[in-house]
Amino acid sequence: MRQIDVKQITQTVKEAVMQANISLPPDIIQALQEASDKESSPSARRFLKIILENTELAVQENMALCQDTGMVVVDVELGQEVIIQGGYLNEAINLGIREGYQQGFFRKSVVNDPFQRINTGDNTPAIVHCNLAEGDKLRITVLPKGAGSENMGQLSMLKPAQGINGVKDFILKVVRDAGGNPCPPIIAGVGVGGNMEKAALLAKRALLRPVNIRNSRNDLARLEEEMLKAVNELGIGPQGMGGNTTALAVNIEVYPTHIASLPVAVNLGCHSTRRVSVEI
Ligand code: SF4
Question: How far is the CA of 147 from the centre of ligand 1 (A)?
Answer without folding.
Answer: 7
